[in-house]
Predict the structure.
Amino acid sequence: MDLPRPELSLVPRPRKLSPRPGRYRIDHTTRLRVTPGAETAARLLRGYLAPATGQRLEHADDGTFVLVLDATLTGLGDEGYGLTVGPHGVLLRAARATGLLRGVQTVRQLLPADALSATAGRGPVDLPGVEITDVPVHPWRGALLDVARHFQPASYLRRYVDLLALHKLNVLHLHLTDDQGWRMPVAAYPRLTEVGGHRAESMVGPAGSDRFDGRPHGGSYTRAELAGLVRYAAERGVTILPEIGLPGHVRAALAAYPQLGNHPGRRLDVWTEWGVCPNVLGVGDHVIDFFRTVLDEVLDVFPSPYVHIGGDECPADEWETSPDAAARVAREGLSGPGELHGWLLARIAAHLVRAGRRPVVWAETDTALPPGCTVMSWRDPAHAWAAARDGHDVVYADHRATYFDYARASGPGEPPAQPGQIVDLATVHALDLTPPSGEPALGGRILGAQGQLWTEFVTTPAHIEYLSFPRLCALAERVWDPASDWPDFRSRLTGHQARLAALGVPYAVPPSRPASAAV
Ligand code: ACM
């Protein structure tokens, strides 16, 4: 067997790749030729090549590095591309601008790994000869970052977006609100961030711990920062999916506006604990109006076709004892307070549908999913297939394979993590989106999958990246092409590791699994 050529150790693996003889040299004489519609990709490419070569590559009509947008190309879909590299030229082609952006990331991976570093050599670099035709299988290839439990500045989110783009991931799901913090400014309700953006201290250890760090934590984005992030991500073909969670996980909003709760006279603080908070939204008309206003502002900032409204972990205890909730149950003809969860979600989801967006909710046991919702299945794969049978589109987010707040390995060297299980690299790579036997049509409802990084235990960018990589590499690989096999992925990952190192990702070599456990 040929030894893998490190520069061809692409992640995710292209669908079709043939090495070709020769190399293409990029130096100060290299010129780009860019057809109409390919300018965004050319800008991105120039930005990536500048540190490597020390120059911004100029345009010329006889340039030999050619980017072509050609809507008549077939078989490439929205994100596919073709790339040919030979000694005399490079040709990157796609039918859609997004396909060119994916191809630019392949060019970036074909560079010598150290050309990816901010202090790259400022000299000529070579691309290996190759012929690639590449198309993803799944359109939703995402990563959730929880900036509610621990805030990260917008500058860091840009870096994270760029790391996602490197792996051809195309959704950054920003978990913007939770019991412990509200990070999105809303002009009509400034206290959401002024009060809800700060907590007095944080629990140390998992839910139920009796230790606290005694240090305040807080932060929120400006609207301009979020709009800038949306633009930055779009230039890389990444969509920012905003999540405003309700009717549970709202303690920060209740601290800011007590009238949203079930006991309007009660003052609550922004939660300092982890776990499932008992305090949830009330069910008055004013609550629904409030969140419609919030979401209208979210829609202004985030052009994403999908908007996430949470829906997970909403205990009904407060509704069981609330006269207002009882009145709502009677007025709406519901069977009991347990149905208020689905009722409220449906009201908010309908608002998004009227605005031309697609609501996304977490799948919860026993809750009727609002019509028109896309479902993120996290507790059990059975929920994914049940939702698909009911006609919902599904994003697979099963905690056993995609929750990266669990440790990636056992052992004393691992940083603090959510207890309960290990999600190792092989488990992520074994992600299986195949529909149950006898129901192949359900496969058409599975948009793809995403990795989740909840941050109760994660305060720093270095920790975020340690938990994200290489597990996101494995996830990216499986959603790009589920046929990826484990030994081949592992051998390419060794070459890819040099790229992550050049980018300053605090990557540690993933521990090997016993061969019997490998997929
Ligand atoms: C979740 O992990 N509560 C979606």
Remarks:
- The mean pLDDT is 94.
- Residues 285-301 form the longest helix (17 residues).
- DSSP finds 16 helices and 23 strands in the chain.
